[in-house]
Each structure stands twice: as structure tokens, then as C-alpha cells.
């Protein structure tokens, strides 16, 4: 990232546009996976389970990039203020739980339930909290 | 941070529980096997065969028997048929066209493929002939080609029946023939959509009126949806003359070899049961197959043991499920079955030979051998006895994987090996 981007971000209190896209995309996919799990759990229609598996895989790719970006941001811009770590660490936990969720979803048929749905809900909540932490730390200037 | 490291520790522990340790004793044989609780870590326990060449080694057989390779460099031999004149037909090929459904299929598929041959599907029948009766098969010639993953073979007066992965076909045959004279006639199409389990095992009724064809399930445990399971996990009885069929038995997850017990009209099958419930679940079995019988899949296994992975459940079907006759042990992957006769020697005269392709869903591998299940008065009467072993060596490398087994009435057991692409012949030394 160019330094100019960082400065504009610090001024506006927002993530870089591509970083926002990664985070927003990941959360969208995690939410879609959660809804697919819910649909499977109520209908037993196996295709929802397949959808959830791919949605989680996609979300993990975007989340991984956002986690890296978050840590790079912290080490480049933060002068040792641990508050700046909240966002990338929360997002890393999101990724780890999401990965466990992907393994749970690799089980056949109903073997992925109800753990899959529970994990999907937790992951969505964590991802949203991480996004909130990102905007909080920016508003208070902790990340610039 | 504390939380993160805790999570990492939990993850590490979970993956260790999936990969480490040893499996419980695999000996669960007979009519009443011990069925442990379900277990499945985050990752399935897997040990995939690590193939290597035989070199100078041979499979091991009991004292008083000898083994030799009578055909090599085949294209994935599966099942064999001994013709009345002593010629041996070999069905060669590989079927299935199941698409990847989940991300795991893209990962698991190539991993499991490492344990099988890289030779391409032969889609043909090869004929082997021992002209002078010395036990060496001098002639190895293609009898028919351009088939579609042929597997089950049967001979009924003047006709050869071949169960392709998508159809039952018939060749006219006159004794001594070494090449089919015309393309085969289709007797009836067979269920072939997806073909997760593609092998169409076959045997003929003693009177030659019917053919029995095994049609495996289209999934491990309904993960492709119940619509994909119409006409699957069943054994069809097909009228050889008209091609008309009816479901002879259902709930049979993957019937990979069929045979009639000599002297009776009773159909027997070896059946591969479901995976990913643990190292000692679910036992593959050898069983008589009753007309109209339901054997549990997918709702339950070994009688009334409900499989919680199947939703919605069907308590009425579970209540009607028949427990099989004889457990061969979980994950052994029985793919071959034939009944013996006194030509095989006194110890192996009465019973069934079973070819066990070998496990993937177990840390400590099982199978990878041919066993003999002794029978008394038409029922299994003891633990399996190793008959051909050494396919998986002490060095952990796999040199061969047995599939079809056929008793040659002249006094030999013919074993197809689809890893080294070899046909083995085991004879009593006289």
C-alpha cells in the first residue's frame, strides 16, 4: 500500500477500498453460508449443504487476505498500540473457526449438523464484531 | 491473543485426534460383530495405499499351494469368468463419472487416486488360454473391446453376459472362440447416472433363467441427495431372455460380487458398507440375499443400528432391515466372491473365497488379501482364514490389490489384481 492511501484512510476513518471489499465480501459469503445451513437444517435438502461448503471456502479466501492486510497495516502504521491488534486478531479467530467449520461441512450429509449451523452463526457474529473493531480503531485513530 | 492461542491448541488437538494413534483391533467377524459408537474427528482417518512394483516378490499362499502370474500388463482387471473349455475371460476397466460436489471432493479425489493404478481403463474383455494344460496361459488376446467399464460376467449356454457400468449386454459364444464376432446386444440398460459406485456385479441363476446384477449406491451416505438413489443400493433380478427386471433386494449399499451357493438356488453377496463412522464401523459383509429383503442402507446398518447422518429418517424401513449373515470386518472392501469346491484341497473345500481390495478409511489398514470363509451345511462356520496375502508388504508399500476371485473347476483360484494389473493363479501343489 502506498503511504498516501494510508493517510487518506486515517483522515476518512475508513479501510482502504480493496480491504473493505475483502472484508465485506467475506462477511456476505459467511452470512450466505449461514442461511444455507439454516435452509438445510429445516428442509434436509442436500444442495443447501453443498452451497454452504463452497460459500465457506470462498469466505475463507477473502478472510485470509483481509487478515494479512490487517496485520500488515498494524505493523506498518501502529506504534505499538495494542488496540490496533483487535481487528486483525478477531478476524484471525474468525478464519480459524471458519476453517474448522469448513472441515465440519466436509462431513457427509447430516453429519455436518447441527455443529455446522452453530459454527456458521458464530463465525458471522465474529466477522461482524471484527469489522466493527476495524471502524472503531479508525475513528479513535488507533490505526494510523 | 490468549483466546487465539487457545483456539490454535484446540485445533491442533482435534487434528491430532483425527490423524494420530492406532485403530482398535479390526477383528469383528461372524454373525454378531461388536459395533462400537460412531466416531469421526474433524478429518477422516485415512491411510492410502502407497503403490510399488512386485519386483521379484510374489503374494504369499498357504503351505501346499503355489501362486503364479498368468497374465500381466492388463488394463485394470476386475472380475474373471472361467469358461467351460477352461479359457478365462477378464473384465477390464474403470467407471464412474461422479462430479465433485463439495470442496473436499477436489482434495480427497486425487489423494485416494494415489492408491490405485494409473493405467487407463481397458473397457474390454481379455481371453486367457492354457493350450496344453500346464498352468501357463500362453494365449492372451482381446476378446471384445469398446465396452463401458465391464465388471460382472456370466455364462449361460451359448451366451456371454457382460454387465457394463450402464447396460447388461450379451455376446453369442461358441466354445473355443477367442474373439467376439459381433458387437454385443443390449439386454437392458442399467442405472448409471452419476455412478458413484459404478461396478455392476453379476451372477446367473442355476437354471440360467435369471441374471442378478448388483447396483451400488450413488453416495457414501446420501450426500448426493435421495433423488440420486432411485434404483440404487439394490440387486436386480433380470430375465435373461427379455431383459425385464425387478428389485430382488434393496438397502444393499454396494454389492460388489454375487455368487450362487453350489447345490442351492441361494444368492449370496459381498457388500461394502458405509464409511466415516469410525475405524470399526461399518462391517463389510458376506450374506445370503433374501428375495424382497431390505438390508438397511441408508437408514440403518447391521439391522436396526440407525445412521444419524440420514435425514429424514424412516423408522418403518429401519424396523424391516435384515441383519447380514457374516461380518468380514469394517473397511476391508470386499470386491470378490466365489464358492469353493473340493478341487481346492481339504482345508478349503467348503466355503467362500473373498477378495479384499483394502481400506482407505482406517489408520491401520485392513484387507489387502484374499480370505477363505469356511462353511458348514451352507452357512458360514468360522473366522476367515488368510488365503492370499502379502499384497501390502511389511514395508508399508502396496504391490497389489485383489478384486475378483473365481474358482476354476480344474483346481485353481483365479485372482484379479487391479493395482499391478495382473491375474494370479493359486493351485494346490500335488
Automatic annotation (TrEMBL), chain A:
Keyword Membrane annotated: yes
DUF2231 domain location: 17-130
Keywords assigned: Membrane, Transmembrane, Transmembrane helix
Alphabetized InterPro entries for the sequence: DUF2231_TM
Keyword Nuclease annotated: no
Extent of the signal sequence: none
Parts of the chain that traverse the membrane: 21-40, 52-72, 84-104, 116-136
Listed name of the protein: DUF2231 domain-containing protein
Organism expressing this protein natively: Novilysobacter avium
